[in-house]
């Protein structure tokens, strides 16, 4: 097997379902993950945060004010708090202040109802899933569909959670080991915007690691001066010492200005031996690169498939999308076109 080849997956470009099929169902719910699997996703992505009793659950943030009905539960009114996490002060209800049993009494809701009103029709239909439940879903679906469906967990705010006595790295590794997924060829990637926890994880597991990068700012653990510095050829060589690939904001590859040309990031990452999985491809105008927007409102769906095809043409190895079926369609047409060109 060639170095770096993904034995578990049949395609050269991976479709990573961002929080599940979050363009069509409330994010980080079994509804969303199942929808993504049905639409052809290769991987489903749970962002992981801990409960008070140390159970890993899937929420984009530990503040669950916008993604659950917690505000309607009078028994939890006193849990409302203001906290500073990674330099950002926020008010709401936080997973680390609830036991798993308490969280399971809540119901998920759509985070962006103004942009995705159709998703709000599913409010109240799903609870907060645990990481173990998501692993079990991926295994059941793999057996039922006759194809491997992987998981792509993100460790959220690892330094913050360690600082309050709820470190997540060992819990994540233990769950993967229990699932039999502790090999470099397991259908798993672990991702983080921080650096030091990925370095720790490298010593704890053989699972492939992905260094996430934002278009601005720096890792919250202050392990690097900026994401921009990490994205230079020298920075990428340093990342390659502990990571299998990078997950950059797609604006780091195609700047978010009309008429932009792609940067050298993909070529530089590949030269360092890193795979490239950019985020996040969403259909709504507000999220698309400027050249792929269409007339209408911020919620109007633009030319997402054209955008994905362009990035596949640039050489990405996978991509995160809220709309896996559109990603699957774009990938199929891009690969068919490439195969046709190869006949010439």
TrEMBL record:
Recorded catalytic activity of this chain's protein: a sn-glycero-3-phosphodiester + H2O = an alcohol + sn-glycerol 3-phosphate + H(+)
Domain GP-PDE: 13-331
Gene3D superfamilies assigned: Phosphatidylinositol (PI) phosphodiesterase (3.20.20.190)
An individual GO BP term: lipid metabolic process
Hydrolase in keyword set: yes
GO molecular function: glycerophosphodiester phosphodiesterase activity
Record-level GO cellular component terms: periplasmic space
Enzyme class, first EC level, given as a word: hydrolase
Superkingdom of this protein's organism: Bacteria
EC number: 3.1.4.46
Annotated keywords: Glycerol metabolism, Hydrolase, Signal
PROSITE patterns cross-referenced by the UniProt entry: GP_PDE
Pfam families linked: GDPD
Family under the similarity heading: Belongs to the glycerophosphoryl diester phosphodiesterase family.
PANTHER family assigned: GLYCEROPHOSPHODIESTER PHOSPHODIESTERASE GDPD5-RELATED, GLYCEROPHOSPHORYL DIESTER PHOSPHODIESTERASE
Protein name, entry field: glycerophosphodiester phosphodiesterase
Organism for this UniProt entry: Sphingomonas hengshuiensis
């Amino acid at each position: 097997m060639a170095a770096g080849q993904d034995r578990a997956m049949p395609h050269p470009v991976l479709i990573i379902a961002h929080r599940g099929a979050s363009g069509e169902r409330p994010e980080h719910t079994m509804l969303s993950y199942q929808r993504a699997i049905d639409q052809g996703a290769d991987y489903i992505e749970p962002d992981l945060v801990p409960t008070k009793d140390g159970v890993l659950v899937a929420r984009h943030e530990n503040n669950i004010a916008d993604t659950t009905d917690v505000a309607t539960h009078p028994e939890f009114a006193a849990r409302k708090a203001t906290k500073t996490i990674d330099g950002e002060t926020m008010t709401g209800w936080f997973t680390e202040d609830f036991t798993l049993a308490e969280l399971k009494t809540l119901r998920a809701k759509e985070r962006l109802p103004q942009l995705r009103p159709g998703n709000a029709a599913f409010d109240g239909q799903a609870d907060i899933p645990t990481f173990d439940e998501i692993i079990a879903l991926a295994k059941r679906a793999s057996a039922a569909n006759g194809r491997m469906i992987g998981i792509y967990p993100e460790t959220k705010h690892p330094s913050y959670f360690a600082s309050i006595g709820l470190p997540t790295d060992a819990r994540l590794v233990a769950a993967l080991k229990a699932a039999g997924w502790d090999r470099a060829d397991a259908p798993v990637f672990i991702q983080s915007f921080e650096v030091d926890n990925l370095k720790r994880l490298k010593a704890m597991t053989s699972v492939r690691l992905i260094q996430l990068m934002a278009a601005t700012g720096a890792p919250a653990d202050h392990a690097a001066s900026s994401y921009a510095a990490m994205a230079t050829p020298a920075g990428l060589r340093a990342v390659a010492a502990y990571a299998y690939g990078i997950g950059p904001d797609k604006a780091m590859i195609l700047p978010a200005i009309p008429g932009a040309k792609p940067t050298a990031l993909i070529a530089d990452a590949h030269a360092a031996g890193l795979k490239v999985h950019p985020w996040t491809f969403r259909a709504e105008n507000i999220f698309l690169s400027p050249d792929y927007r269409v007339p209408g409102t911020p919620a109007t769906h633009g030319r997402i498939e054209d955008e994905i095809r362009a990035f596949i043409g640039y050489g990405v190895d996978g991509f995160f999308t809220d709309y896996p079926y559109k990603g699957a369609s774009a990938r199929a047409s891009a690969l068919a076109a490439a195969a046709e060109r190869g006949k010439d």
